[in-house]
Design a protein that fits this description.
Layout: H1 12-63, E1 67-72, E2 75-80, H2 85-90, E3 96-99, E4 105-110, E5 123-126, E6 135-141, E7 144-150, E8 157-164
Antiparallel strand pairs: 1-2, 1-5, 2-3, 4-6, 6-7, 7-8
Length: 165
C-alpha cells in the first residue's frame, strides 16, 4: 500500500508562481514580436520600391533607351521615356505601377546641384547604360519610415535609416 504523504506534486502556490512567470514572459515578448512584424513590413515596402528601380535599370540596359520612375498622386509609375509607336498601338507601353495608399508617402530627393524647378514633377531616370541620377528616396507609412540612398553608377539602393513606429 502506498503512503499518500510520500507522493510529490506541485502545490497551488508553485503552480500560480509558474503561471505568473509565463505571463510576465509573454507580456515582455509581445511588443518585440510587433516590432519584428512592423520591421518586416517596412523592409517589404523597400523591396517593392527597389524592385521597381532594378526593373527600370534592367529595361534601360536591355532596350538601350531611358526608363523613368515618376511620382504621381496615388502611385509610382515605371515607363519608357519615349514609347515607340508600335508599343502604344499594341498596348505594350503600359506602365508598371506601385500603388500608394493614403497613409503612405514616398519622396524623391536630389542633390542640390541636380534640383529641378519646384513645379517639376518627381521623375527619376535610368539611362541606356544602366546608370541613374544619385537620389535619396524616403518612405513614411503606418508602420514607420525608411530612407534609401541610390548609387548613380550601380543604381542599387541601400537603406540608410529604418524607423519603426
Amino acid at each position: 500500500m502506498t503512503n499518500l504523504s510520500s507522493r510529490r506534486a506541485f502545490t497551488l502556490i508553485e503552480m500560480m508562481l509558474a503561471i505568473a512567470i509565463a505571463i510576465a514572459v509573454m507580456v515582455l515578448a509581445i511588443p518585440n514580436m510587433r516590432g519584428v512584424s512592423r520591421e518586416r513590413r517596412l523592409r517589404e515596402t523597400f523591396e517593392r520600391f527597389d524592385g521597381l528601380a532594378r526593373k527600370a535599370q534592367l529595361n534601360a540596359v536591355r532596350q538601350q533607351r531611358p526608363w523613368s520612375i515618376s511620382w504621381e498622386q496615388d502611385r509610382i509609375v515605371l515607363k519608357p521615356d519615349d514609347p515607340k509607336p508600335e508599343e502604344v498601338e499594341s498596348g505594350d507601353a503600359q506602365p508598371e505601377e506601385l500603388p500608394i495608399s493614403k497613409e503612405e508617402v514616398f519622396t524623391l530627393d536630389r542633390h542640390a546641384a541636380l534640383l529641378a524647378p519646384k513645379d517639376t514633377p518627381g521623375v527619376w531616370t535610368f539611362w541606356r547604360s544602366g546608370t541613374c541620377e544619385p537620389v535619396i528616396v524616403s518612405y513614411s507609412g503606418p508602420e514607420g519610415s525608411w530612407t534609401a540612398q541610390y548609387d548613380p553608377l550601380t543604381g542599387h539602393g541601400e537603406l540608410t535609416d529604418l524607423s519603426i513606429r
